[in-house]
Design brief:
Layout: H1 2-29, H2 34-37, H3 48-61, H4 63-80, H5 82-101, E1 109-111, E2 115-117, H6 119-136, H7 139-160, H8 167-175
Antiparallel strand pairs: 1-2
Helix pairs in contact: 3-7, 4-7, 5-6
C-alpha cells in the first residue's frame, strides 16, 4: 500500500545519497590544489605533438578538478536558466508518472474523467511535450553552451598547461595514493 511505496522511495533516495556521497569522496581524493591547477608560469603554447601528450597526462592528473569545474558550470547553467530547468523537471516528472502508470503491461492508462489513453498515445504526447518545452525554453542553446564551455575550458587547460608529470610518474602515483585527500 501507501506505506510500502513511501518506504521504497525512502530506500531509493538513501541509496542514491550514499552512491553520490561515495562518488564525491572518491573525486575529492584526487583533487589537486587549485594553486597548482592555475599556476600561470606553467602555461605555454605547445607544439602540435606536445599538445596531445600534455592533454593525455593533464586529463588524468587533474580529472577531479575538471569534474568539479563541470559540476559548477552545470549548476550555474541550471540556476541561470530557470524556465529550462522547470520545464525539464516537469517533463521528467510526467515521464516518471507515465512509466509508473504503464508498469505491469497495462493496455490503457486511465486519466481523470475516466478517459482511456493507450500507451502509444501517452508516449507520443509526452515526447511532443518534451520537445516543445525543450524548444520553447532554449534547450538546444543551453545544452550547446554547457557542452562547448566545458570542452573549451578543459581541453584548453589540458593542452596549454605543461604536463603535470610524466605518464610513468602518474601511474606510480595512482598506485601509491593515500586515502586522504591531497587537495588541501
Amino acid at each position: 500500500g501507501e506505506g510500502e511505496h513511501v518506504m521504497g522511495v525512502r530506500q531509493r533516495l538513501t541509496q542514491v545519497f550514499f552512491m553520490t556521497k561515495g562518488m564525491v569522496e572518491t573525486s575529492w581524493r584526487g583533487m589537486r590544489s587549485w594553486r597548482e591547477f592555475a599556476d600561470r608560469t606553467k602555461f605555454t603554447t605547445p607544439s602540435k605533438i606536445d599538445a596531445l601528450s600534455r592533454a593525455k597526462v593533464n586529463l588524468v592528473y587533474f580529472k577531479s578538478n575538471y569534474m568539479l569545474l563541470m559540476t559548477i558550470l552545470t549548476i550555474w547553467t541550471i540556476l541561470s536558466n530557470i524556465a529550462f530547468t522547470i520545464s525539464m523537471a516537469v517533463s521528467a516528472a510526467a515521464w516518471k508518472l507515465y512509466l509508473e502508470l504503464s508498469e505491469g503491461g497495462r493496455n490503457t492508462i486511465t486519466l481523470p474523467g475516466n478517459k482511456l489513453l493507450r500507451p502509444i498515445e501517452a508516449y507520443v504526447g509526452l515526447s511532443l511535450l518534451t520537445l516543445i518545452l525543450f524548444y520553447l525554453t532554449g534547450g538546444s542553446s543551453t545544452v550547446f553552451w554547457l557542452v562547448t564551455t566545458c570542452l573549451l575550458v578543459i581541453v584548453g587547460h589540458a593542452t596549454l598547461r605543461e604536463a603535470a608529470s610524466t605518464p610513468a610518474e602518474l601511474a606510480l602515483e595512482e598506485l601509491s595514493r593515500p586515502d586522504e585527500p591531497d587537495w588541501v
